[in-house]
Amino acid sequence: MTNFTDAARHFEQLHAAAPEFFMEIENDDDLARATAFLHTFDRETRAGATGGTHLLDPLANALMRRVMAYEEAHFPPAAPDMELRVLLDVHKLTQGQLAEAVGIDQGTISKLASGKRPFSADHARRLGAYFGVNPGVFL
Known about the structure:
Blueprint: H1 4-17, H2 28-46, H3 57-74, H4 80-90, H5 95-102, H6 106-113, H7 121-131
Helix pairs in contact: 2-3, 5-6
């Protein structure tokens, strides 16, 4: 059973140690701060890593979703191929890693990312689910 008193104490400690994980993004300065924090988190937690996940990844992913929601609301959408390239870069994934994770051939991922092939509804659904974004960004 959950001990909410202990959970609250641990939350306070985590919030004090890394408040950026919990920040709201209300303006471009917040966006820049959150993005810089995510880059630092990624660099420091992935240095020398050989795969796997970090215990704080769910918090980083939640912050990434807030970053993406802010960007979606305040910046015009990019072309689907550009969206895919940005997501690959942000998540530090190779096309091969993404292909394996979503079950789409790597050659197809390459063509999608270069704009040489249009995204199908199935591609958009798989990629949207994987990245936690609206599949419509790929259509």
